[in-house]
Amino acid sequence: MPEFxxxxxxxxxxxxxxxxxxxxxxxxxxxxxxxxxxxxIGFDYRHMEAVDGVVIAVVEVTCRYLYPARFDxxxxxxxxxxxxxxxxxxxxxxxxxxxxxxxxxxxxxxHLYLSKDRFRPIRLPxxxxxxxxxx
Amino acid sequence: MPEFxxxxxxxxxxxxxxxxxxxxxxxxxxxxxxxxxxxxIGFDYRHMEAVDGVVIAVVEVTCRYLYPARFDxxxxxxxxxxxxxxxxxxxxxxxxxxxxxxxxxxxxxxHLYLSKDRFRPIRLPxxxxxxxxxx
Amino acid sequence: MPEFxxxxxxxxxxxxxxxxxxxxxxxxxxxxxxxxxxxxIGFDYRHMEAVDGVVIAVVEVTCRYLYPARFDxxxxxxxxxxxxxxxxxxxxxxxxxxxxxxxxxxxxxxHLYLSKDRFRPIRLPxxxxxxxxxx
Amino acid sequence: MPEFxxxxxxxxxxxxxxxxxxxxxxxxxxxxxxxxxxxxIGFDYRHMEAVDGVVIAVVEVTCRYLYPARFDxxxxxxxxxxxxxxxxxxxxxxxxxxxxxxxxxxxxxxHLYLSKDRFRPIRLPxxxxxxxxxx
Lengths: 135, 135, 135, 135
Hints:
The structure is a homotetramer. Chain A is α+β, with helices and mostly antiparallel strands. Chain A has three helices and five strands; from the N terminus they run βααββββα. In chain A, strands 1-3-4-5-2 form a five-stranded antiparallel sheet. The first copy, chain A, is elongated.
């Protein structure tokens, strides 16, 4: 499971009156990174949700805000799957200002596979396990 | 169809680096006003969506920003249904700072009734028409 | 520092295509709870930011999502300051569906006092310390 | 003032429980398009706000929602300045699903130049007028 990097550019909408990015938006960027990571490993998240009825639900997230990001900054998000079983998935994130590598945020998230209709924990369908590095 | 007023308090998350409310958030407040208006006329929007499979989709919106709203301001939103047929619904909104009545935004929105599954225009179910003032 | 409870009603805008509240929005609610908590202890956050040039920045947040919140649910947020010094402030949150007490999320956040202009750590102004329970 | 096209990919956070993009998010994309348009004409919005103390405030916006955008869709936004004077700026937007050109939204926005500190209408600084096509 190699590390993967994706980029977002800070939107005006994402700033607050402190003049920096509002802290909840980092969670949205983490989701953008997860979706891009899925695409990178050859996996279409939208497809799994629509066809297999499996959703990847966030069950825990921790964010440490180290330095403020600002409007129009380009942010490089490195994402790494640090645990991957048929039941759960954990990611670690490292967000840096692309212009100078300044570290702005580190984070982790934990996810469970749930059935889309009843929100019950299920196992990742067999066909996806290799891509997700499940042993 | 009497006018109805609801209130929201500006969240920090809703401000941007200009120090005022980011303009897209007024559309969210308009939706809060519509849901409260529905409750006021004895109609449960969540129920209609879940049980009848009818969604009220926004098809057009116009907003005029007159004066900036700021963090922690209480905003009084007056909402009035200005057209209501079995196919569509139009609202007019007037938003004022509650503390002094300063007008901050006027807006209109137009909505169509759609089937939840196929997003096709449908007619408002008979049982809801009286509450919605459909003649 | 007594516990305090505030309430929010889930907005349509806060849901995602899973049919539940998008997880980043809980951080916005936590901020609503903090602002209401400040008001409760007789402290005007907006004033401190504007007049004293002090901002309360989020430096770390952890959220555990236990059960999904849905559109139009009323959410009761209990907030408690679990550490309060002249340099930092920590909160614990417990969010429940108001209708039946179902626990949906627990969270913690840590904050530093920063100067508004240079984003440097500063001490909470003397005049606010009693209200914040700083010994 | 040539037309310009920019692209966004729909984020999960931007969907709602209808399974489509929440309508307020189109205004955020319009802002992304304006910022990219500024960059294209060799103009740094962040710079003007920070150095010249001029903000470009939204004073009116109209959106017509033609077809729903969905999670992970790539959206092509064409933006065109349809009026540009030293006092105001008007844009027209055309948003299409990139995969097949399906039109999803058309919109217009009107903006005034304001002083950042007092929010009073001012004229666009002389040095920017050529780039903005002001005659």
